[in-house]
Amino acid sequence: MLDRQDGQPVGQVTLTALLPAHAVDAAYLHMSGQPDTFLTSLGPEILTVLYRSLPVSQHAFGFAAVDPGRPASLIGFVSATTSVGTLFAEMGTRQIRAFLPPLLRRFVRQPTLLARAAQTSLYPFMHGTAGAGIPSPAELLSIMVDPAQRGRGIGSLLVAALQAECRRRAVDALDVTVDAANIGAQRFYVSHGFAFVRTFTLYGRKMCLFQSQLR
Ligand SMILES: CC(C)(COP(=O)(O)OP(=O)(O)OC[C@H]1O[C@@H](n2cnc3c(N)ncnc32)[C@H](O)[C@@H]1OP(=O)(O)O)[C@@H](O)C(=O)NCCC(=O)NCCS
User: Fold this and answer.
1) Which residue owns the Cα nearest ligand 1 atom 14?
2) Which of 9, 16, 170, 182 is the most exposed place for a label (fewest CB within 10 A)?
3) Which CATH number fits domain 14-169: 3.40.1350, 3.40.630, 1.10.150, 2.60.120?
4) Which of 25, 79, 150 for mutating ligand 1's site (highest number of atoms within 8 Å of CB)?
5) Which residue is closest in CA terms to ligand 1's atom 36?
6) 42-56, 85-99, 135-149: lowest mean pLDDT where?
7) Which of 135, 45, 39 has the alpha carbon at shortest distance from 79?
């Protein structure tokens, strides 16, 4: 059982590594936490493939918050990559066989998603905090807590675990992209040591890039 640093108990919650077995729950938490986003518009099948792929990638990792009595069922999770460009390249090559069939089914049903998918493939080049000679930061890809369990410190535990793991991996900085309209999440990140870097546009929406310095 874990406690908040301010001493308020979060109750029966255990943190474990994010596993492929959590993928279905992670997909549903993602859809409820980010209702109007491109990834959610791809649907549960593709998100499940994504969350099955992330934990087995050498370039990604994450933590799951679970009830110790039901370890396969997710209360919340966080996922990250040590290199967003390498992760995207891996998904477009080594893992393409898992993604292609559900993606094709989705694009046949909703061809307009193709343009947004193309834009997503450019994402690693869009916010670019990495420059020549500067090591590329890790990136927090997603953090979601079950709506019924929010405000209990679970998100804080997940971010703290992620920052500690990044330090263990000698990562200098952790980026996160937040929709400019998601003021609650921005407040959450700032209270965990992230600072605003810049805005950029993705899918016609204003996004904010935040960065946490880890050294
Ligand atoms: C962001 C999120 C993971 C935080 O998880 P959590 O377990 O509620 O986090 P904690 O209990 O540790 O901390 C709560 C803090 O989050 C902030 N917060 C985050 N999102 C919020 C929202 N939509 N409304 C109000 N407050 C929010 C509050 O400022 C609160 O701070 P406080 O304790 O000082 O009041 C959770 O709100 C969530 O799943 N949101 C939907 C998905 C999302 O937006 N993810 C970020 C995408 S970039």
Assistant:
1) 151
2) 170
3) 3.40.630
4) 150
5) 145
6) 85-99
7) 39
| Distance from Cα 185 to the centre of ligand 1, integer Å | 5
H or E element that contains 140:
strand 138-145
The runs of H, that is alpha helices, within 63-199 are: 84-92, 96-109, 113-121, 123-126, 154-168, 183-190
AA letter at 31:
M
Ligand 1: residues with CB < 6 A are 33-34, 143-145, 150-156, 178, 182, 184-185, 187-188
- Buried residues in 91-127 as b, exposed as e (16+ CB within 10 A): beeebeeebeebbeebeeeeeebeebeeebeebbeeb
55 sits in which H/E element: none
